[in-house]
Write a structure and sequence with these properties.
The chain is of the alpha+beta class. The chain folds into two domains: 66 residues, Zinc/RING finger domain, C3HC4 (zinc finger) (Herpes Virus-1), CATH 3.30.40; 169 residues, Sandwich (Apoptosis, Tumor Necrosis Factor Receptor Associated Protein 2, Chain A). It has six helices and 17 strands. The longest helix is centred in the middle third of the chain and has 12 residues. The C terminus is likely disordered. The chain binds zinc ion (4 copies). The site of one zinc ion (ZN) has 7 residues, from strand 2. Keywords: Metal-binding, Zinc, Zinc-finger. It comes from Eragrostis curvula (weeping love grass). One of its GO terms (molecular function) is zinc ion binding.
C-alpha cells in the first residue's frame, strides 16, 4: 500500500446507527462521559457517577472499565442536532454534544410577528424578517453606537428594527410600545436566542439605549441594562420586558414633524468566553 492510499483509508469514516439510550449513563441519565464503567448488574455509568450509582444498585460493589463505550463516546463525531436550521458543525464529539447544543447559535426561535409561524435559527430569521415583514436590518459592532429611526409604536406587524452584530452575528430586536402610564413611548431591546442562559461559549450582552432632545439644554433619556435572550415564543411588544427606555413627549418637543426621532443603541459584550468558542 503506498502512502497516498494509506492516507485515504485512515481518513475515511463510517456512520453506524445505535440506539442513543445505549450511551446514556444509568446514574445521571445524560450522555456518558468517559472513562466509562459497568457495574456487575451490567449498568453503564460515567466515571464521575460511580458513587451515585452505588447508592441505588446492589451490583455496584465491583466496576469494570469498559473500553468499547469509552472509545465510542470519546471519539464519535455527530452532526449538530440543529443542522437542519443551518449549523454545519460536523465534528461535535458525542460527549461534547450537549455542551455544543447549549451554546449553538443555530438553535431555532420563533418569528414574533402576529400570526406568523416561521421557526428557524436567528440567522435565517433575519432573512425572513427582511423578506416577509420588510423589517429594517442594521449591522452593528460591539461597543460602537448606532443610530436608528424609532420603530413605529404599535403591534409587531407595524415594525421592529433588527440589529445583527458583525462579530458573532447575534440578532437583536428593537421595538417601541406605548407606555401604560401616559403618553410616553417605551423602547426595548431583546436578543433572539433559544439558549441564552449563561454557559461556556454563550456570549452575554449589555446595551445602552438613549435619545437626545432636539432642544439644547435638555438631558437625554438614557438607560443601560443586561440584554435578555428569548426564543420569542409568545413574545409581544406590549408585554413587560425586563428593561426599557422611556421616551417622554416632553423630550421630543421642539422636533419638527418631519424629523424622525433617532434612537442611539450601543451593545457591549460582557462575558461568555472568547468568540472562538461560539459555534
Ligand atoms: Zn453519569
Ligand atoms: Zn448497577
Ligand atoms: Zn450546532
Ligand atoms: Zn414572520
Amino acid at each position: 500500500m503506498d502512502a497516498a492510499e494509506k492516507t485515504s483509508v485512515d481518513e475515511s469514516q463510517i456512520s453506524p446507527m445505535f440506539d442513543v439510550s445505549r450511551f446514556h449513563c444509568r446514574a445521571c441519565l445524560g450522555a456518558l462521559k468517559p472513562p466509562t464503567f459497568t457495574c456487575e448488574g451490567g449498568h453503564l455509568v460515567c466515571g464521575t457517577c460511580l458513587d451515585d450509582h452505588a447508592q441505588v444498585c446492589t451490583g455496584a460493589d465491583v466496576y469494570i472499565a469498559c473500553s468499547d463505550e469509552h472509545f465510542i463516546v470519546r471519539d464519535a463525531n455527530l452532526p449538530c442536532f440543529f443542522s437542519e436550521f443551518g449549523c454545519n458543525s460536523r465534528s461535535v464529539t458525542y460527549k461534547a454534544a450537549a455542551d455544543h447544543e447549549r451554546a449553538c447559535q443555530w438553535a431555532p426561535c420563533y418569528c414574533p410577528a402576529l400570526g406568523c409561524e416561521a421557526f428557524t435559527s436567528p440567522a435565517r430569521l433575519v432573512d425572513h424578517f427582511r423578506a416577509a415583514h420588510a423589517w429594517p436590518v442594521t449591522e452593528v459592532s460591539h461597543g460602537k453606537p448606532s443610530q436608528l429611526a424609532m420603530p413605529p409604536v404599535g403591534p409587531l406587524r407595524d415594525g421592529v428594527h433588527v440589529l445583527v452584530t458583525k462579530e458573532e452575528q447575534s440578532v437583536f430586536l428593537v421595538s417601541a410600545s406605548a407606555s401604560p402610564f401616559g403618553a410616553a413611548t417605551e423602547v426595548s431591546l431583546v436578543c433572539v436566542r433559544a439558549n441564552g442562559d449563561p454557559a461556556p461559549g454563550v456570549p452575554q450582552f449589555k446595551c445602552r439605549l438613549w435619545v437626545e432632545s432636539p432642544r439644547a439644554g435638555v438631558d437625554p433619556a438614557s438607560v443601560t441594562f443586561p440584554v435578555e435572550s428569548k426564543d420569542m415564543s409568545g413574545w409581544s411588544v406590549a408585554a413587560k420586558h425586563g428593561s426599557f427606555l422611556t421616551v417622554t413627549p416632553d423630550l421630543l418637543r421642539g422636533a419638527s414633524g418631519d424629523t424622525p426621532v433617532l434612537i442611539n443603541v450601543r451593545i457591549d459584550r460582557i462575558g461568555g468566553g472568547s468568540s472562538c468558542c461560539f459555534y
